[in-house]
Amino acid sequence: MTCGATSPIHSVGGRTLSRRAYRTPGFGSLYAALLLVLALPGCGSTPEQEPPAELNPFEPQARIARLWGDSVGDDEEFDLTNLRPFAHGETVYAVDAGGAVTAYALKNGDQLWRHDLDRTISSGVGGDGERLWVTTRDGDLLALSAKNGKLLWSASVASEVITVPVVGQGKVIVRGVDGRVSVFDAVAGGALWEYRSNVPVLSLRGVGEPLINGSVVFAGLDNGRVVALNLNDGTVIWEQTISAPRGRSEVERLVDVDSAPVVDGDALFVGGYQGRIVLLAAGNGTTRWSRDMSTNKPLALDRNSVFVADEEGVVWALERNTGSALWKQDRLLRRRLTGTVVHAEYLAVGDFEGYVHWLSRTDGRLVARRQVHDTAISNAPLVYRDLLLVQSRGGYLAALRIVPLVEVEYPAN
């Protein structure tokens, strides 16, 4: 290939990139021409991509039982990353890319109802127990009845939304790929306010979900900043830079804050791509500590640690108050990990071959592994009560539970 030719898939700095991974704001599904130049041999350094780490055996410390599983529907052809289920009470709700919404009994996976919206869905399910919300590829926010999936109302969003709608305080919040944070009345569907931010020419395909904390909305932005907004009217409370663009090429200057903010009291944890993991004061945005680390995946917290799956597939535990490394696990390198979640006494993370891995929160040792499906798990699993709910790119939904390695049988009274 010579300079001037193009390639849909190429490697830059050891990362495999594709046209589908990036978007040009304001141009729908068109992708920046600049990205094509980066594919050219002789036009930049393109080292060979190393293969994903092999899954070597280890001594399991726990057994993972599948409580139930079912096929929701296939979403692979749509290149989606966030078709995550939602659970409330004794019901689990899931959607496929073709618009089929299904409700399952939590205890056994029995199908309670299924409703076909006949729309191309672009996000997972948000809900409050009475209503469910999903978004479409055409930029619509749909409110559904949690009793039967019937459409209650729809509202137009300015752009495609690929994050799960966030619900709280009687409001529904969506974050569009054009950088807008849009807020709607949860019952009536009317638009309440909108926040706009500047979006770089290139950004990762994917945005972090906003976070509602009391009367404040925290949102990560594609320009490397995080903003705190008043939930009632959208006024800016504070704004803070997480990652500043560095390098000469547009790819090197990507600084998306696609890792959804996590809050605990006045501690707000945020991660940026090609940037930093940062602890901010939730009240005023003051930086308490920062650590250079690249991630676009959700973080997880426990009482002592912040857990991060970084860009290379290394899982880290950072000390909450200082950001210093407690441990790292590098046996899952380049396996395209999901965000981390705390499941019982362990840490769980999915990968591109449909496996879920459980790690010790104390020292990062691998303690359990189970393949849920033969297609990728591309969104962080959902922890609900003692269950881990996992939806694969192939549309398989499974409810998993940790059980002792040896079941103890007690004599009947």
Can you describe what's shown?
Among the domains are: 1-50, no CATH class; 82-205, Lipocalin (Beta Barrel). The protein is built from one helix and 36 strands. It has one helix at residues 33-37, and strands spanning 9-12, 15-18, 22-23, 63-71, 86-88, 91-95, 100-105, 111-116, 126-127, 131-135, 140-145, 151-156, 166-168, 171-175, 181-185, 191-195, 203-204, 211-213, 216-220, 225-230, 236-241, 259-264, 267-271, 276-281, 287-292, 300-301, 305-309, 315-319, 325-329, 341-343, 346-350, 355-360, 366-371, 382-384, 387-391, 396-403. The strands form ten sheets. It has a four-stranded antiparallel sheet, with no helix packed on it. A four-stranded antiparallel sheet has the order 5-6-7-8, with no helix packed on it. A hairpin with a 4-residue loop joins strand 23 and strand 24 (276-281). It starts with 8 loop residues before the first strand and ends in a 10-residue tail after the last strand. 42% of the residues are buried.
